[in-house]
Specification:
about 160 residues, alpha+beta, two-stranded antiparallel ribbon, about 30% helix, binds zinc ion
């Protein structure tokens, strides 16, 4: 068994699309960054990379590389999933928390879990996505950005599989 944790945060800007867990959410602002700035998917990637002892997302997809500009973060997650498989591990479960003051994300949590599950080739019940507001405190509470945390558990794949 291997445990991993990931964290990410991106600023909210007018004129950007808001994408979390690969799901586009209608909102006046979106997350700004080099890729599509999907903070949830980035936290998930970092959790899995951490469990594998493989450093972090920035090491695998450097923002200095123009190839990764506006990249769909689900494509990064797919690469991380392939690395997990190559190293002989499979996902047991993944628990995530989005830190956001607005918009209201609860209707999108299940679709996010289903989207992440599809990319990771697991059942959606193995993935939990929840959301916490910033209660008006700090940068998250002022709606300046959206953050995400993720914790995952991996197990070594049985040899007969
Ligand atoms: Zn990020």
């Amino acid at each position: 068994m291997r445990i991993g944790q990931g964290y990410d945060i991106h600023p909210l800007r007018v004129g950007r699309r808001l994408i979390l867990g690969g799901i586009e959410i209608p909102f006046a602002k979106g997350l700004d960054g080099h890729s599509d700035a999907d903070a949830l998917t980035h936290a998930v990637c970092d959790a899995i990379l951490g469990a594998l002892g493989e450093g972090d997302l920035g090491g695998h997809f450097p923002s200095s590389n123009p190839q990764f500009k506006d990249l769909d973060s689900l494509a990064m997650l797919k690469d991380v999933a392939t690395l997990m498989e190559t190293k002989g591990f499979q996902l047991v479960n993944l628990d995530c928390c989005i830190l956001a003051e607005a918009p209201k994300l609860s209707p999108y949590l299940k679709p996010m879990a289903e989207r992440l599950a599809r990319v990771l080739a697991v059942e959606s019940h193995q993935i939990n996505v929840k959301v916490k507001s910033g209660e008006g405190l700090g940068a998250i509470g002022r709606g300046e950005g959206i953050g995400a945390q993720a914790v995952c558990l991996l197990q070594r794949r049985p040899l007969h599989q």
